[in-house]
Design a protein that fits this description.
- With 85 residues, the protein is mainly α.
- The protein has two helices and no strands.
- It is elongated and about 85 Å long.
Length: 85
């Protein structure tokens, strides 16, 4: 086939070409299948069952922190510096 490539190189090139072609065919097949069968969005479900819902602050007394007036003012200033996106 190519005079400058050994027969083993030609076989390797043919195998590489066949693998690339098979990858393209499989990829196109998956795209066509996904377009025919509508799947719901991953985030559309209620949530993961393995992750529990967050508790409210009143759920446990160890989850609340009393702040002094100076700490509250410092926290408010910090929040004002954050960009809102």
């Amino acid at each position: 086939m190519f005079p400058s490539i050994s027969p083993a190189g030609e076989v390797g090139l043919a195998v590489l070409l066949a693998a690339a072609l098979a990858g393209v065919v499989v990829g196109l097949g998956r795209m066509l299948r996904d377009s025919r069968f509508h799947r719901s969005e991953p985030g559309a479900r209620g949530g993961l069952a393995a992750i529990p819902a967050q508790r409210t602050a009143a759920a446990h007394p160890m989850e609340t922190v009393e702040l002094t007036a100076a700490e509250e003012e410092a926290f408010d200033g910090l929040i004002r510096t954050l960009p809102l996106h």
